[in-house]
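In this section we walk through a basic example: taking a raw amino acid sequence and producing a predicted 3D structure, encoded as discrete structure tokens. The instruction is simple. Fold the sequence below.
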Amino acid sequence: MAERFEIVEKAVLTMLEEKKYATLRDILITMNPSDVAGLFDCLEEKQIPLMFRLLPKELAAETFVEMEPEAQELLIRSFSDNELKEVLDELYVDDAADIVEEMPANVVRRILQHADPEMRHSINQILRYPENSAGSIMTTEYVSLRPNMTVGEAILRIRRQGVDKETIYTCYVTANDKTLLGIVTVKDLLLAEDDDDKIEELMITNLICVTTQTDQEEVARMFSKYNFLALPVVDGEHRMVGIVTFDDAMDVMEEEATEDMEIMAAMTPSEKTYLKSSPFELYKHRIPWLMLL
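The resulting token sequence is shown next.
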């Protein structure tokens, strides 16, 4: 796998040098966003904006989320106002909040300046919560339904709202004051016998949820234990404020595993996860401990 990626890296560099941009674009659009992001690590700074601009809008946004903060900052500084807005418009709120946390103040100001008011409000809301809490890793983008809706009305609402939501498989039934009453899945809706059935008749009320203050490692353990795709996050009055998705829980698990590996290997903390670090970087973080032996 590593050898194959090295071959792709060399091919990408060659195509950039030879200005075969159309061919390069055709290759990039067949790749996973995470793999595309990895290619940027081997580029010179001047090549990063060039290759990023070859990506289609949706792939560009997905790749941007996976990139290292240094490359993200470089791109943000190189973006025109329209380019920055296009990328932000494609990002989910929790991803945008994660990026904002990594950026210097002047870059943050530019991001918030070009984010739409709803995203700006949501980013600020997420950033209010303590670091490493459920509130800090949640997204505020979820589908909410009302208990008195019919199945037909619920499906119509999902069609209208779902395109901008991070996940639509599980929908959250809330009261007018956002109190979480239950959940219902898209499968439940599609298999309902009658489109006039009420959501309150289908919803599950025996809920497992977390508060905004719950530690993120506890959240990750709940995903592992219960095999959730998403987990509702409520405030102190059981009002729905967001959800933690499986991919965010996986990020926490990876961070936790990296910390454990570093402790076992007597390494200083690293900003990169263990699996994303090169052998040289791993060795570098062991040097302080080796000198003490």
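Looking at the output, two observations stand out. The beta strands are 144-145, 170-174, 180-185, 210-211, 230-234, 240-245. The chain has a mean pLDDT of 88. In the next section we compare this with other chains.
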